[in-house]
Amino acid sequence: MMPQMPQPTFYIFKCEQSAPPGMPKPSCVNEQTQDLFNYLAQSLMQKGIMGPVQAIRTSCLGRCQMGPVMMVEPGHYMYSNLSKEKIDKIVQEHIIGGTPVQEYLIPEQFWGEPINLAQ
Ligand code: FES
User: Fold this and answer.
1) Edge-to-edge strand order for the sheet containing 53-58?
2) Does residue 34 lie in a domain region?
3) Residue 5 resides in a domain
4) Given pLDDT bands bounded at 50, 70 and 90, which one contains residue 20?
5) What angle do CA 60, 14, 104 make, to 5 degrees?
6) Which pLDDT belongs to residue 69?
7) Is residue 13 pLDDT above 90, yes or no?
8) Can you give the CATH number for the domain in which 31 is found?
9) pLDDT at 3
C-alpha cells in the first residue's frame, strides 16, 4: 500500500506579473518588489515548512492596483501592498499561527462577496 500523502496545509499564490517597461499600469513585480517571492520561499525553507506550505508563482490575480498581492488558500485571503515585513508577519501569524493578519488583507471594497454562479 502506498504511504499516505497529506495534502498541503496552505497554498500561497504570489502574483509574479510584471508590466512591460514603459507601461503605465501598475503591476505586482517591479524593480522594488521583484525579490518578494524569493524572500517568501526562503522564509518557508528556513522554517522547515516547505511542503505543507506550497508557494506558487502566478500571473495576474486581477488586483494590480493593490499590488504586490498574494492569496493564501484555504480561505481566499488576499493580502495587498506586500513588503518583506508584511510577509514575515503573515508567515508567523497566519501560516504558522493560524490567525490571518486582518490589517494586511485587501480592503473590502476591492474584495466583495463572490458572485453566485448557481442558477
Ligand atoms: S499584476 Fe499582480 S494582480 Fe495584476
Assistant:
1) 53-58, 10-15, 70-73, 77-79
2) yes
3) no
4) confident
5) 105
6) 98
7) yes
8) 3.40.30.10
9) 85
Helix spans in the chain (H): 36-46, 84-90
Q: Please report whether residue 69 resides in a domain.
A: yes
Q: Can you give the pTM of this predicted structure?
A: 0.93
Atom 1 of ligand 1, nearest CA residue: 27
Q: 59 is in which domain, residue-wise?
A: 10-110
* Ligand 1: lining residues by beta carbon, under 6 Å: 15, 17, 27-28, 60-64, 67, 69
Query: Residue 22: what pLDDT?
Result: 79
- Residue 16 falls inside a structural domain: yes
Q: Say what the pLDDT of residue 44 is.
A: 98
pLDDT (average), residues 51-71? 97
112 CB-side CA count, 13 A: 3
Contact 72, 94 (CB under 8 A): yes
Name the residue of 23, 28, 30, 106 to mutate for ligand 1: max ligand atoms within 8 A of Cβ. 28
Q: How many domains does the chain have?
A: 1
For ligand 1, pick from 60, 78, 80, 106 the residue to mutate: most ligand atoms within 8 Å of CB.
60
Q: Mean per-residue pLDDT for 99-109?
A: 97
